[in-house]
Design brief:
Largest sheet: 8 strands, antiparallel
CATH class of one domain: Alpha Beta
CATH architecture of one domain: 2-Layer Sandwich
Number of helices: 16
Strand content: 15-25%
Helix content: 25-40%
Bound molecules: flavin-adenine dinucleotide
InterPro entries: ALO_C, FAD-bd_PCMH, FAD-bd_PCMH-like_sf, FAD-bd_PCMH_sub2, FAD-linked_Oxidoreductases_BP, GULLO2-like_C, GULO_Plant, Oxid_FAD_bind_N
Family: Belongs to the oxygen-dependent FAD-linked oxidoreductase family.
Cofactor: FAD
Shape: globular
Radius of gyration: 24 Å
Structural class: alpha+beta
Number of strands: 27
EC number: 1.1.3.8
Pathway: Cofactor biosynthesis; L-ascorbate biosynthesis
Length: 604
């Protein structure tokens, strides 16, 4: 019997042209101040509160719930919330107003109803700047944007921050968030933290909860800097600052020859340098980015395209186009999309704006607060329902995975060489799916004394790629993406970013962090009953994975070891990698689909 695959006939040049035209037309409309803000990640209905991440869907697509939530506004209210939970033997998770961490770190246990959430949404009023000592102390619920604006108002700058401003200070340090730098204290924000107050469970004689002030060489401080929310509630964070400065940025779109040699010098030469690599296009974009004097003329901003408000129409059209190419296994269509988007990014300097309105020429010079982080899709009047962040879960917009691997600096060049070899083996078209998003974003983090930070100078690579609406439907060229993921995490032992990644990336993490045992010792000391733990945060911290159900490898919940972990009925079987033979990936095999379907009785 002939097994026919229904081919969706798509006029892809027309679709691409339509999306491109829509983007161009809409980008000239005033929009950034008028967009529907992201939904609150916690929704309560009187009986139960449901927590989602910023994308509206967790890795396993199962919601997290808790019967109650509290909203402290002061440190004492925070202490009382922890005391109350401790007295009543409730398990606790801290949630923020953003919930932009992708893994289920903030999810309370699903094994018991005895849980509660503590939100920092309303714990955000204090930003105290000590100009003489160049430090700022903030409530953990303060947003990155509020912090950086306030600091610059006092003629100071926060040197490190993630590129995305939809984060709270408590959330970002808890997960080791970073920008890019090997200079000074480096690109990770927690390495600029000089003190933390942490609310932990206490004895009855201590009122069931106490506030610890941590700083200096205290092992508790080294543990608390990056603590995944499992030690207690971070109440206040004290950060070091520097005199205010501006930055001067130029993007150089060029060939990708020799990235594997250039990346080290690039970081040494440019304080905030990064590299975006579009492998299917043989293109590298070097970001030449150094600080300049605050009096240098220039009032530019970095309004990164991916974080701008998008028209709902454009997001939906982009998504349905990509989906159609997925369904029809149309690599060429995906490659056209990638080419179009890359060209557009080059035209608009990926969102850099010389005068806050449009890009005219390089370099773009602006203040540290206006250049380091962006996220204009966050701000909004709820009146404009036609504009949102591209991934807003209320529209049928973008849905993607984020893989973020952190390499010892010395090994990163070999990873690049491997991806190039793989590209030669499989044809570059199979990598277009990555280039539709942001290619490989390469950034730098300096060695840190945080137990769950990077113990050596490191290079971080992020890449995003299509996630389907249906977890049971395999993705086009998913074998290639899985192989790259496994090359990163298992061939080169890269560490996963705690706030990103699919579940498999956390396998074996304890062995990757030399101070992991010290972290767990501190955890036992400050939270002996495991009040701040859940099976979800254990999954990440302990890197255990017992998932082995049918299709578990399709969404990265496991690495396949048998065909059933892929999708034999749809022609995806568990196979070794093309280059890294230890990899096990789900690969489409037209030849095997027929016999498999016959075996399974799907066709007769
Ligand atoms: C679009 C996008 C872009 C991103 N870009 C970057 C980037 O450039 N660089 C980067 O490194 N990361 C990036 N991230 C990841 C992001 O920085 C982290 O997910 C960050 O932790 C999110 O902060 P949040 O305030 O939303 O915290 P949440 O996601 O709500 O919480 C994170 C964790 O911290 C815990 N937590 C939060 N507050 C406290 C507290 N006060 N005390 C104790 N525990 C607490 C929570 O329980 C949870 O475990 C990005 C994420 C997205 C969605």
């Amino acid at each position: 019997m002939k097994v026919g695959r229904k081919k969706l006939m798509l006029n892809f040049p027309t679709l691409i042209t339509t999306i491109f035209s829509l983007i161009i037309i809409l980008s000239f409309l005033p929009q950034n101040v008028n967009a529907k803000p992201p939904p609150n990640p916690v929704q309560c209905n009187g009986k139960v509160c449901t927590l989602k991440n910023g994308y509206g869907v967790w890795g396993d697509r199962r919601d997290c719930t808790s019967p109650s939530i509290s909203y402290p506004t002061t440190e004492e209210e925070l202490r009382l919330a922890v005391a109350n939970a401790n007295r009543n033997k409730l398990k606790v998770k801290v949630v923020t107003k953003f919930s932009h961490t992708i893994p289920k770190l903030a999810c309370p246990s699903s094994k018991t109803n005895q849980t509660t959430l503590i939100s920092t949404e309303r714990y955000n009023s204090h930003i105290e700047i000590d100009t003489k000592n160049m430090v700022v102390t903030v409530d953990a619920g303060v947003s990155l944007r509020d912090l950086t604006n306030k600091v610059e108002g006092a003629a100071l700058s926060l040197v490190a921050a993630p590129y995305w401003e939809g984060v709270t200070v408590g959330g970002l340090i808890s997960t080791g968030a970073h920008g890019s730098s090997w200079w000074g204290k480096g690109g990770a924000v927690h390495d600029h933290v000089v003190g933390i107050s942490l609310v932990v469970p206490g004895k009855e004689s201590e009122g069931f909860a106490k506030v610890l002030w941590l700083e200096g060489n205290d092992p508790l401080f080294k543990a608390a800097k990056v603590s995944l929310g499992v030690l207690g509630v971070i109440s206040k964070v004290k950060l070091s600052l520097e005199p205010a400065f501006k930055r001067s940025i130029t993007y150089d779109f060029t060939k990708d020859d020799d990235i594997e040699q250039i990346y080290v010098n690039h970081a040494k030469k440019f304080e905030f340098g990064d590299i975006t690599w579009y492998p299917s296009k043989y293109t590298a974009v070097y970001r030449y980015d150094n600080r300049v004097d605050i009096n240098t003329s220039g009032d530019g901003i970095n309004d990164f395209l991916g974080f701008q408000s998008q028209s709902v129409l454009v997001s939906m059209a982009t998504r349905s186009t990509e989906k159609a190419f997925e369904n029809s296994k149309d690599e060429k269509g995906k490659c056209t999309m990638a080419t179009t988007f890359m060209a557009y990014k080059q035209t608009i300097a990926n969102g850099l704006k010389n005068n806050k309105l449009i890009f005219t020429n390089y370099p773009v010079i602006g203040t540290q607060a206006n250049i380091q982080a962006s996220g204009s899709c966050l701000y909004s009047s709820p009146l404009r329902l036609d504009l949102t962040c591209g991934w807003d879960p209320r529209i049928k917009g973008l849905s993607f995975y984020e893989t973020t691997a952190i390499f010892p600096a010395t090994k990163f060049g070999d990873f690049i060489k491997d991806v190039k070899k793989l590209r030669d083996l499989i044809t570059p078209q199979k990598l277009c799916g990555i280039d539709i998003y942001n290619g490989f974003l390469v950034r730098y983090i300096k060695a840190s004394d945080a137990y769950l930070g990077q113990h050596e100078d490191s290079v971080v690579v992020d890449f995003n790629y299509y996630r389907g609406d249906d977890p049971n439907i395999p993705r086009l060229n998913q074998d290639v993406l899985e192989e790259i993921e496994q090359i990163a995490f298992f061939k080169y032992g890269a560490k996963p970013h705690w706030a990103k990644n699919r579940k498999l990336a956390f396998l074996g993490v304890p062995k990757k962090f030399p101070n992991w045992n010290k972290f767990v010792e501190v955890k036992k000391q400050v939270d002996p009953q495991g009040m701040f733990s859940s099976e979800w945060s254990d999954e990440v911290l302990y890197g255990e994975n017992r998932e082995n159900g049918d299709g578990c490898a399709l969404e990265g919940l496991c690495i396949c070891s048998e065909d059933k972990h892929c999708s034999p009925s749809k022609g995806y079987f568990c196979k070794p990698g093309f280059l890294y033979s230890n990899a096990r990936v789900c690969r489409f095999s037209q030849g095997e689909i027929l016999s498999s379907n016959l075996d399974l009785g799907v066709i007769s």
